[in-house]
Sequence to fold (252 residues):
Amino acid sequence: MAVGVLALQGSFNEHIAALRKLGVKGVEIRKPEQLEQVGSLIIPGGESTTMAKLAEYHNLFPALREFVKLGKPVWGTCAGLIFLANKAVGQKTGGQELVGGLDCTVHRNFFGSQIQSFETQLSVPELAAKEGGPETFRGVFIRAPAILEVGPKVEVLADYPVPSGKLFDSISALEAPQENAGSEKKVIVAVKQGNLLGTAFHPELTADTRWHSYFLKMTSEVGEEASSSISVAGGEDTSSNEQLGNDLPIYQ
Fold:
């Protein structure tokens, strides 16, 4: 089956373009009933509060939660990671509704505002083992969240060093006791738990499609028909968008 991409706001076009490079059709999802057409789903980066309001307006949250509960693969990038988290802190007054399912606590905008966005080379040994290529990945962080805590069943795929003071300021938002401060700590920026994948950065804004390939293999592991659908999808795209304009730059 095709891969759904939640197309309420954010970098959904870039995800669809990355899937197309791998010969897989991406389907824009805006309504609950459209989820029945796909076997997996990507929730892209964007403005998480805006995305949540639009999802609530279209009554998508019950269908998204059911999609997760059915064990279908879901990948959240940046704002999508916030959606999948069981708990989010650092939110605006009133917070936002979450899909949940990923046993972690995410700090929204952990790395700061738009002007504090950055790129860095992340160590990704698990990704390299599965997909080949270098053991680093160019992480593009734009008003990015970070994962502060994970449950025992969550596999950490990448982390990033931060000054201990910044981390402890964020942990205080969890009302958790602070440990003795060191010079540097790490926050988690990529995780996997069963059918769920989460990245705090934007793989869709790079020319490296290994995270998309990794997610497609997760999809193939879930259903017997998924692996064959990926191989026969080819480069054909019958969606209404013949050419996809990029809302955000693709970093080479």
About this structure: The first strand starts at residue 2 and ends at 6. Helices lie at 12-21, 48-57, 61-69, 79-84, 125-131, 164-172, 210-222, 226-232. The domain at 2-232 is CATH 3.40.50.880 (Rossmann fold). Residues 25 and 245 are 16 Å apart (CA to CA).
